[in-house]
Design a protein that fits this description.
197 residues; mainly alpha; Jann2411-like fold; two-stranded antiparallel sheet; 6 helices
Length: 197
């Protein structure tokens, strides 16, 4: 079933999703976890990744995804997660930045990134489809989010068993958890148990 390519998907505990095109990056980051509780990697193999791209209109033929395309997507996803974790403290993450630069150089020519000025705010769009174009679009959205200042609000939950990417809408960017009721309370309870020993 087709999905709007920028749809961030369901969020835990009713949290508001990332706005606009940043929703694609949030969905990309959260593809490691099935929110329905099965805890399964949504991109378990190239076919699953191809199906994810296809339902978002990023790959006309999901069968074009090769194992190396999946490996590159997973590497980009984890580099973006490291940057989203670093957004909690505005900390640098040079190793993750290097991965973004390398993958941008690898997929850029095939993605056909094109500046667009009409029909909405200025942005980078892709002129192709397929795995390289999808990663190019994700990187283009991250670049635009850095320009417009929305990137530091995309964070990854620091709970050891979570990592869910969430958009921090608090006034002072102080949200720490994907859900205070879930991961925040689990962390507080674990800290309390340690102190009680």
């Amino acid at each position: 079933m087709p999905v709007d390519r920028f749809d961030p998907g369901r969020q835990p505990a009713g949290r508001a999703p990332a706005p606009g095109r940043l929703g694609l990056v949030q969905a990309f980051l959260n593809s490691f976890w099935d929110l329905d509780g099965r805890g399964a990697e949504l991109w378990a193999d190239p076919a699953a990744y191809g199906a994810w791209l296809h339902e978002r209109g990023l790959a006309a033929d999901p069968a074009v995804v090769r194992p190396e395309d999946l490996a590159r997507a997973l590497e980009l996803r984890e580099a973006l997660r490291a940057l989203a974790l670093a957004n909690h403290d505005d900390a640098p993450a040079p190793a993750a930045e290097a991965v973004l630069d390398r993958i941008a150089a690898e997929v850029g020519p095939a993605a056909g990134l094109t500046p667009r000025f009409g029909d909405g705010p200025p942005r980078l769009d892709v002129g192709a489809d397929g795995p390289d174009a999808a990663l190019g679009l994700v990187l283009g959205v991250v670049l635009a989010a850095r320009w417009d200042g929305s990137w530091p609000r995309l964070k990854a939950c620091p709970h050891a068993h979570c990592g869910w990417a969430f958009y921090d809408r608090s006034r002072n960017r102080s949200s720490q958890w994907c859900s205070m009721r879930i991961c925040g309370n689990r962390t507080k309870a674990a800290r309390h148990r340690v102190r009680s020993l």
